[in-house]
Please model this.
Amino acid sequence: MKNKGFEHLYIESLRDLYSAETQLTEALPKVEAAAKTKELQLAVKKHLKETEGQIKRLDKIFQSLKESPQGKECAAMKGLVKEAAELIKEEEAGAVRDAGLIGAAQKVEHYEIAGYGTARTFARLLGHEDHAELLQETLDEESMTDEALTELAETMINDMALNEGGGSAKAPREAATSAASGSSRGSTASSSNAKK
Ligand SMILES: [Fe+2]
Model:
């Protein structure tokens, strides 16, 4: 007999991922629209397509469990999406904002990598080998997306951001409000692109 409590935790972790992916399908088009660099737009568009496929994989798992995917809101993804929206609001379109958007996207990927890795391991422990395979496929996609974003930052966008005129995208009259809200400008793009 399976451990009911552990099975429940597994299902809740899948619901969290389902909510995270659903939120992302709404947020990614906004990130694509905010990105200035064509390469970043394409990377975001590609990941939106992947995300739709990832939701289908989760749907399959919920069907086999005869459970609903609804009922949980991923608070972490809500926060990560909110931070990205703030960045879009605070920075003018350009390479600096793109560098920030890559950092924001990588925070999302790392969250998902942790979530899918955990869910995959739970699936194996609970004897759902078919689920584990589906979750591993998504996990591999998330890791590849993360690596592609690192490459895009390190081979292109970070340099463009460094060389973008003036270093600050804000007009002087707006600078005071940015400072008051705690500017992290300039520190995100390079430090979050850590290679494995
Ligand atoms: Fe995803």
Remarks:
- The domain at 4-170 is CATH 1.20.1260.10 (Ferritin).
- The radius of gyration is 19 Å.
- The chain is about 80% helix and 0% strand.
